[in-house]
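Data card: per-record layout.
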Amino acid sequence: MADLTPLEKSNLITRNLQEVIGKAQLDALLNEVIPNEKEEKEKEKEKEKESTEEKKEEKKGTPRPLKVYWGTAPTGRPHVGYLVPLMKLADLLRAGCHVTVLFANLHAYLDNMKAPWDLLEVRTKYYEAVIKAALESVGVDLSNLHFVRGTEYQLSKEYTLDVYKLASLVTEHDAKKAGAEVVKQVEHPLLSGLLYPLLQALDEQYLDVDAQFGGVDQRKIFMFAEKYLPMIGYKKRIHLMNPMVPGLVGAKMSSSDPESKIDLLDEPEAVTRKIRKAFCEEGNIENNPLLTFCKMVLFPMLKEGEPFVIHRPEKFGGVVSYPTYADMEKAFAEKSLYPGDLKLGVTEHINRVIAIIRAKFDTPEMVQLIKDAYPDMPVPRFSCVAPAADAKNQKKKQPQPKKPAAPAVEDVSRMRMQVGLIKTIEKHPDADSLFVETVDFGDHTRTIVSGLAKYYTTADLLGKKAVFLTNLKKGKLRGIVSEGMIMAASNDAHDKVEVIFCEAAEPGERVVVEGYLGEPDNQVDAKKSNGVWEKSVQPFYSTNEQLEVTWKGVPLKSEKTSSICKVASLVGGSVH
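The structure for this 576-residue chain is written out next.
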């Protein structure tokens, strides 16, 4: 919007942000202009004739656009939580900024290989299509939006040399600290994860931007960039940070659990079903993911002057509208807006946006792109691939009883998960962070070494029935051979870890995922790069609101007693 004043642009750029580092620099840049060359030359010729007042005349020219970049790794299929940063990109574009979206394909691979290398390019194409469709759905001009792949410049000689320069300055402590909120934390991190913050810092320089935008979880990397870029001769940038927004239907939206997220291509019935499950306590405005989503996404989507409308049935009060988010929040706090009303309104507005996005994907080419990018995920239904009805033949056909679907065979079946009773447990003699357990599996016992000493006492685990992986390749940990692995869930920061228990089961019972049948391998190497465990199984575990441990949304159960495997309190955790 060229007619906006610098102050109006600043307000639009910073609205709903949690923090801005470099606000004075931001305002100064927004007040800069690019001089008109013709006018400047004429002024130079008339310089001696200018009066004192003319010399004081303010320079005229074109407002200098702020250059901002936002990076995203093309990993899981984007869900509605993705609209939070996209609506800020819409604000930036409306404020006249030049916005670069960096598809951090190299970062995605370095961050514990969250995306297989052979799928990165096609997933990048999918992400680009989704971003364009989402921004177009709210009427944003995309002429100042640019897409860049990380590998277009991150493999250059100059960039690589700068990586080495930073590597000679950055300590292991600082690299690990910088990535603590972004890179998955493990006891023995790969070098690739330590490089991640260095690359993200250098991206600011090589994309030639004034500012980087991201979530507040990126703050440590932003501060890392501010500290280290000047050490190799580059300037500090402005940093714009969104707050972290809770998932609508759980503590964490998980791309691997279909019921914990609303996909940007979901059908209306699916959106309605999932929003009904959302936490929404009457009168609670402090811990309400639906209100937060309205503030960060749905209200910014509205056209100027357009109210947020909820079409309630007449028996529940009829249509109600709110001109501003503050009006809606006040009504909810005063309990004149009920949770059911809010869910109805959120569902309607999300479906309106998703319908526009779905329409852009409703072609055979786009459906094939979805299949290629996420071959292990179900493809949403579209009209372009619906089977054509043959009324003439249908009349002749007699209804046939449906055959039960054959159980699916997936890689999770190749892992032998069993319930084990912890008979003895003691600290490892040579490692304070390790326990050594003797575990009863009914017909035999095993020695298991686990890294749980930071999270549990021996008394917490002695005599408990936990879930173990028992067909892993044996490994030696500080001199003691471990014959399996205890399964546990953790949060993203890895500062909360909870063992998966199955107390009602019998020792030795196999733990299965209902509907996925198959025999376990004799041996699986969990540490093998791109192996079955880390590539095809581990990423799809999570814990739900009922504290059940699930695989692709299906709870883990003991095979004979059908006991559900659970954690103590961790919702939205990943399993390792």
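Known properties of this structure: Residues 411-575 form a domain with the OB fold (Dihydrolipoamide Acetyltransferase, E2P) fold (CATH 2.40.50.140). The longest helix spans residues 339-361.

See the next section for split statistics.
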